[in-house]
């Protein structure tokens, strides 16, 4: 039997003295440090709850002075607890009633030792998750951080609240937001707050994989399944078993593979390419897209049934332009990380931070990070306005957004990049409108943005490499 992750305090409420004593003994034996108190009736239990702190309450459904359900959420309790109902009636109606009244779980008599230990382990994990959330909230108050995410603005506070609610559950999550807003950080934080935190979190960029290889990458393949398959390979689903799989840019996944993904999600099994035997997997899926998934469904490029299967709990990330003072907070955060890495002590002037707050960042947080890194390279100890690079993407929004100046001799690819980004900025990042103005399809626009995003990341890596 796997041990509990930490000691817990349990109140056993049972009128049968022998069973009550046996349950209390089992609770204490399960892990050193566990504490157990006993009560034979509702009245005794209420007194115990009003004077002591308990992580869990094991309560019999039928007690001499009433139903055990009446104890759930006792308003006079000194501290909140998780309730596990014990009943001799194993009917579905009894279980549903207990869960609706707020019980964490229920056990049937005679109580199975393995089942009880599993439920208590779940209580311990739930307590740890609540402690983790409390710690993250403290970071948010003190440092403007929530896990790996940085920001104090109201739009981000709403995102944190959603993450806090969905994290401890096993629900599928669909994260939407423009490129560079931090969708993978949302997935990391949700995973960190889940009961799967000790298991793997794996990320797959569905838009960056070859359509011919993505099935093998997700589901694995057997040796000889296709040309080049010289050995058996486990797919992402198998490697993430027990943990979380982050499917980034899901809307770029080929339609035929979407059907197979839906089957995996519904059946909980995968079949490697070239194999016939299914393999059971237990994976929580977090999907993400920088496109409006409903628009992609309407275009016929995303299956509606798959979207609704994954969109159990949607989270929409705000663009950087809607986050106000978070720009300066993020810039300081990125610079602090650079200083720690390089052993430097560079700092922004107030004018530099003010300029950053006025800049247009079509690439959102990712672009801001690149601008901070480049300006730190160009500046000595003091980073002022003149240290910011002069690329069009990093300039403040022009007073006349309909005008774009391109130097003679600029390559067509660079001119196209600047025109696309400037058009996007002029229409408030409305991609449909920008594509119509530019005379290109929405898919072409997304493909171009993906290329620019990859180029920006490559340039940042090159410029920060030693000896460059």
Task: Give the secondary structure arrangement, pairings included.
Layout: E1 9-13, H1 17-30, E2 35-39, H2 42-51, E3 56-60, E4 62-63, E5 66-67, E6 82-87, H3 92-100, E7 105-108, H4 113-143, E8 145-146, E9 149-150, H5 154-166, E10 173-176, H6 183-192, E11 201-205, H7 214-219, H8 236-239, E12 244-248, H9 255-267, E13 269-270, E14 279-280, E15 284-289, H10 293-298, H11 304-310, E16 313-316, H12 326-342, E17 347-348, H13 350-358, H14 364-378, E18 382-383, H15 412-426, H16 431-438, H17 442-464
Parallel strand pairs: 1-2, 1-3, 3-6, 6-7, 10-15, 10-16, 11-12, 12-15, 17-18
Antiparallel strand pairs: 4-5, 8-9, 13-14
- How many whole angstroms does the radius of gyration measure? 27 Å
CA-CA gap between termini: 55 Å
Arrangement of strands in the largest sheet: 2-1-3-6-7
Q: pLDDT average, as an integer? A: 83
CATH architecture of the largest domain: 3-Layer(aba) Sandwich
Figure out the total of helices: 17
**Inertia-based shape:** globular
Largest sheet: 5 strands, parallel
Put the structure in a nutshell.
45% of the residues lie in helices and 14% in strands.
Q: Please, could you describe this protein's structure?
A:
This protein is about 45% helix and about 15% strand. It has about 475 residues and is an alpha/beta fold. The chain folds into three domains: about 10-125, Response regulator (Rossmann fold, 3-Layer(aba) Sandwich); about 145-320, P-loop containing nucleotide triphosphate hydrolases (Rossmann fold, 3-Layer(aba) Sandwich), CATH 3.40.50; about 320-465, Helicase, Ruva Protein, domain 3. Helix 1 (about 15-30) links the parallel strand 1 (about 10-15) and strand 2. Helix 12 crosses helix 14 (about 365-380), helix 14 (about 365-380) packs parallel to helix 17 (about 440-465) and helix 16 crosses helix 17 (about 440-465). The longest helix is centred in the first third of the chain and has 31 residues, at about 115-145. It is globular and about 90 Å long.
């Amino acid at each position: 039997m796997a041990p509990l992750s930490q000691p817990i305090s349990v109140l056993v409420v049972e009128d049968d003295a022998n069973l009550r004593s046996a349950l209390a003994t089992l609770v204490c034996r399960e892990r050193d440090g566990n504490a157990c108190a006993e009560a034979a009736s509702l009245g005794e239990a209420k007194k115990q709850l009003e004077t002591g702190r308990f992580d869990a309450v094991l309560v019999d459904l039928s007690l001499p002075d009433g139903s055990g359900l009446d104890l759930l959420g006792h308003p006079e309790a000194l501290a909140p607890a998780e309730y596990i109902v014990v009943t001799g009636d194993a009917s579905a109606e009894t279980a549903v009633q207990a869960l609706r009244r707020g019980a964490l779980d229920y056990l049937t008599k005679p109580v199975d030792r393995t089942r009880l230990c599993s439920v208590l382990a779940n209580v311990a994990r739930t307590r740890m998750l609540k402690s983790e959330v409390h710690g993250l909230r403290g970071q948010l108050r003190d440092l403007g951080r929530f896990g790996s995410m940085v920001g104090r603005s109201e739009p981000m506070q709403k995102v944190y609240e959603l993450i806090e609610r969905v994290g401890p559950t096993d629900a599928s999550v669909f994260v939407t937001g423009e490129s560079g807003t931090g969708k993978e950080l949302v997935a990391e934080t949700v995973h960190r707050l889940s009961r799967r935190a000790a298991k793997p979190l794996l990320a797959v960029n569905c838009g960056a994989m070859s359509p011919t290889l993505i099935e093998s990458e997700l589901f694995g393949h057997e040796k000889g399944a296709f040309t080049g398959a010289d050995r058996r390979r486990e797919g992402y689903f198998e490697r993430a078993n027990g943990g979380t799989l982050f499917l980034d840019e899901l809307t770029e996944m080929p339609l035929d593979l979407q059907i197979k993904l839906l089957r995996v999600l519904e059946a909980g099994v995968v079949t490697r390419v070239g194999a016939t035997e299914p393999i059971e997997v237990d994976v929580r899926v977090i999907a993400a897209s920088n496109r409006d998934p409903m628009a992609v469904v309407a275009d016929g490029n995303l299956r509606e049934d798959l979207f609704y299967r994954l969109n159990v709990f949607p989270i929409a990330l705000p663009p950087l332009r809607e986050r106000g003072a978070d720009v300066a907070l993020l810039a300081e955060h990125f610079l602090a990380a650079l200083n720690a890495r390089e052993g430097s002590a560079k700092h922004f002037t107030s004018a530099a931070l003010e300029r950053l707050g006025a800049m247009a960042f079509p690439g959102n947080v990712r672009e801001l990070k690149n601008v901070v890194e480049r300006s730190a390279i160009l500046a000595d100890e003091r980073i002022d306005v003149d240290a910011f690079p002069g690329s069009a993407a990093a300039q403040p929004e022009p007073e006349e957004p309909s005008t774009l100046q391109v130097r003679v001799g600029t390559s067509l690819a660079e001119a196209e990049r600047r025109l696309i980004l400037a058009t996007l900025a002029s229409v408030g990042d409305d991609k449909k409108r920008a594509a119509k103005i530019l005379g290109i399809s929405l898919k072409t626009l997304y493909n171009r943005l993906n290329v620019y995003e990859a180029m920006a990341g490559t340039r940042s890596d090159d410029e920060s490499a030693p000896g460059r």
